[in-house]
Design brief:
Tumour Suppressor Smad4; about 550 residues; ATP-NAD_kinase_N; binds adenosine-5'-triphosphate; ceramide kinase activity; Diacylglycerol_kinase_cat_dom; binds calcium ion; 15 helices; PH-domain like; binds N-((E,2S,3R)-1,3-dihydroxyoctadec-4-EN-2-yl)hexanamide; 4-stranded antiparallel sheet; 10-stranded antiparallel sheet; CERK_PH
Length: about 550
């Protein structure tokens, strides 16, 4: 917003709402008269010229810092109540314009048991008054059990065609329920069966998240902070951003969608241990994290992954994904061009060929085998090893514990995930990895870490007799060594899939570029001025 002389211009893109107010006689507000006008050439601005008494307040957003948004009231006087009413109506009507993509009807799910169990109060005290100010009609649902929200969505009990968005007040787990419910409903509605290698369909409506959980990774990564008011304001302004979604298969059967982390080994063990300590609240993760760290378990496994075809884009390339990110915009455009045709990519058949032709890694720290030219998609690689952790993230996974996130240069909507493999290492080495991850420090010179930007991957634990040869350097393994290896390979971990445990270790994962839209705009580049932030961000305004 700027004020100049007797005129005030407000950027309607950043208006939260407008209300009538009684303005005290000595207030320092501006007033305006009949010759105030909507400037047709500046579609987002209304110019107001001051005269007269009575008034109304326009609530706009401010950026006090650290990516947090707050509200500020700008009050105007009118010379009579009719003019005041006209202005309120004109501003409300302008905000309803399709160009702004602001939601009018929302379904809000609140998980009363999220995080520190304050979700209901947070919603009533901080969110609802802002939704009311913005004239958003809300259907409120307090969840009564796990999968309540998901079931309501899959069964289409909410008439999704008549609403603009779903909001979950909770943590990543609650979002995951809503995401899975919405995508499954969308597929079923089009009679698409969710099976091995099916193409999921993008829903029409957006999802918003009000952070009230323990980790709040998705909110933090898409807004730059985990703050209730900030997230509410992103929803009200109608922000939108497409984020990548994974489809996860277990034993070749589709099981669920994920958007943040898939972690085997350390992150899986941590989650499994923490699941029956929910009573501890968010601190359960620190407790179980320390336990898993001390256990220093490592697991044998085979990972096959398909590298991104963009060799310039890499987990260590230092290109941050900010609001209006060029890499995500380009990926989004080519994705929307390709959605009309069925995409054919290398699949299980090629995996078999790969098994026959590949020169497997014998040691966990050695380089991956290059299978270039052996079949149509030469970007497949295979790694065999003993891993403390295998993590795949589809977004950076910034959160309070690690503001830079598990993979700081990962993109929200580039159609790729970052695969981070931590080979067997000492506790000191793993601590180094954890600390560097928490602080966002360089990890590429740690020789027990491999990082790749991939489109899909599969993992299988090495537990079969036939696997022993591939993990031993000896041609004829002595009986004593065989027994030892058998004991070691029979130990498996579980997968941490967006905070839910998947018990079966054999999985395959594919990423679907910008499959779902959130009410967010990505992290605003802190080096930009406020007006630059306003202009670079939201795709909805580019199209308007
Ligand atoms: N009424 C309820 N009772 C018990 N569990 C519920 C209820 N409503 C939702 N849930 C489940 O609680 C799980 C965890 O909730 P949520 O993600 O909101 O909080 P959290 O685990 O504290 O945070 P985070 O996921 O960020 O670590 C979700 O997977 C959801 O399925
Ligand atoms: C010195 C020790 C510092 C440890 C820092 C390690 C680096 C952590 C990177 C952050 C990764 C977050 C991944 C997000 C996972 C969420 O989908 C999931 C559900 O909310 N949370 C957890 O699994 C809970 C995750 C708990 C992480 C410890
Ligand atoms: Ca991505």
């Amino acid at each position: 917003m700027y004020l100049s002389g007797h005129e005030a211009s407000l950027d309607l893109r950043e208006v939260v709402g407008v209300k009538a107010v009684k303005i005290p006689a000595k207030s320092s507000t501006l007033s305006f008269g009949k010759n105030a006008k909507v400037d047709e050439n500046v579609p987002y601005c209304i110019e107001m010229q001051p005269i007269g008494p009575l008034g109304f307040s326009v609530v706009i957003i401010t950026r006090p810092g650290n990516h947090r948004w707050r509200c500020k009231q700008v009050s105007f006087q009118c010379k009579d109540s009719s003019l005041c009413h006209q202005w309120i109506t004109a501003i409300k009507e302008a905000l309803k314009s399709e160009a702004f993509c602001r939601p009018k009807k929302l379904v809000v799910f609140v998980n009363p048991f999220s995080g520190k169990k304050k979700a209901v109060k947070l919603y009533r005290d901080k969110v609802l008054p802002l939704f009311e100010l913005a004239d958003i009609h809300v259907t409120y649902i307090e969840t009564e059990r796990q999968n309540h929200a998901r079931d309501l969505l899959v069964q289409n009990s909410l008439d999704l065609k008549r609403i603009d968005g779903l909001v979950c007040v909770g943590g990543d787990g609650m979002f995951s329920e809503v995401l899975n419910g919405l995508l499954t409903f969308t597929a079923h509605d089009l009679h698409i069966e969710e099976m091995d290698r099916f193409e999921p369909v993008a829903p029409d409506i957006r999802i918003g998240i009000i952070p009230a959980g323990s980790t709040n990774t998705i909110v933090y990564t898409t807004t730059g902070t985990s703050d209730v008011v900030t997230s509410t304001l992103h929803i009200i302004l109608g922000d939108q951003i497409g984020i990548d979604v994974n489809s996860v298969n277990v034993n070749d059967q589709f099981v669920r969608y994920s958007v943040t982390l898939l972690g085997y080994g350390y992150m899986g063990d941590l989650l499994k241990d923490s699941d029956n300590k929910r009573w501890m609240g968010p601190s359960r993760y620190s407790w179980s994290g320390t336990k898993s760290f001390l256990a220093n378990n490592a697991y044998y496994g085979e990972i096959k992954y398909r590298l991104s075809s963009n060799s310039d884009s890499h987990p260590t390339d230092a290109v941050k994904c900010y609001s209006g990110c060029d890499i995500c915009s380009m990926a989004g455009q080519s994705n929307s061009r390709s959605t009309s045709k069925v995409e054919i990519s290398a699949g299980r058949d090629t995996d078999l060929q790969l098994d026959e032709q590949s020169d497997f890694m014998k040691h966990s720290n050695s380089q991956s085998s290059d299978l270039s030219g052996s079949y149509s998609d030469s970007n497949w690689r295979t790694v065999i090893g003993k891993f403390v952790a295998v993590n795949s993230v589809t977004m950076s996974c910034s959160c309070d514990l690690s503001p830079p996130g598990m993979s700081p240069y990962c993109h929200l909507g580039d159609g790729c995930m970052d695969l981070i493999m931590v080979s067997q290492c000492s506790r000191i080495e793993f601590l180094k990895f954890l600390l560097r991850t928490a602080k966002g420090e360089e990890r590429k010179n740690l020789d027990f870490i491999q990082m790749h930007r991939v489109k899909e991957f599969s993992f299988r634990p090495l537990t079969e007799d036939s696997d022993l040869l591939s993990i031993s350097s000896e041609e004829n393994i002595p009986q004593s060594k065989k027994v030892k290896l058998k004991r070691q390979t029979s130990r498996t971990s579980v997968w941490n899939c967006d905070g839910e445990v998947i018990d079966q270790p054999k999985i395959s994962v594919r990423v679907h570029c910008q499959l779902v839209k959130l009410f967010a705009r990505g992290v605003e580049d802190p080096s930009l001025q406020d007006d630059q932030k306003r202009n670079c961000c939201s795709p909805s305004f580019d199209n308007s």
